[in-house]
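Exercise (ungraded).
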Amino acid sequence: MSATGSKELKENLMRQIQQESATQNARLLIDAIQDNCFTKCVSKPGTSLSKAENTCYTQCVDKYMAAWNTVSAALMKRIKEDQGLQ
Amino acid sequence: MSDAPDLSSLDSQLTATDKSELQTFLNHTRQRSEIQQRTHVMTDMCFKKCVTGIKSASLDRTEEACLSNCLDRFYDVAKLTVQHLQSHRG
């Protein structure tokens, strides 16, 4: 085995793992956004997406991402506090 | 990401240092992924409770406070579940 080959293989694997993880995270976020915002903004589906539904939906997407960040920050705080107690 | 890749098959191709570096990286990624998944579950639940109307693209102060309270109260309840069930066994 060569040190260069090993390094290259390691870096390739890390990149793949990182990408797969990011893709999975994005997919979960997109599914949750669609589920929540469709429920909130398209209560009675018509023959096309109305202007109001359109506006509501995009605002909801932004709101959901903001909510994700808020919950994430609260969770990180919680985890840090719990670790401090141990 | 659910199945941990089997690094033993890479034994012959990786140096010991690279292998342990990769293992550490894998553990970190797995841990981060678990936290992200927990964040998804909590955001989904708390968004339903805290965001009632979509009138703007940003969270107002009440919604923001509700979201972090939602997470903290969920953890209180988690503790309470165990405590309460244990009190039944006594």
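Further reading is listed at the end of the chapter. For now, observe: Chain A has a mean pLDDT of 95. The two ends of chain A are 43 Å apart (CA to CA).
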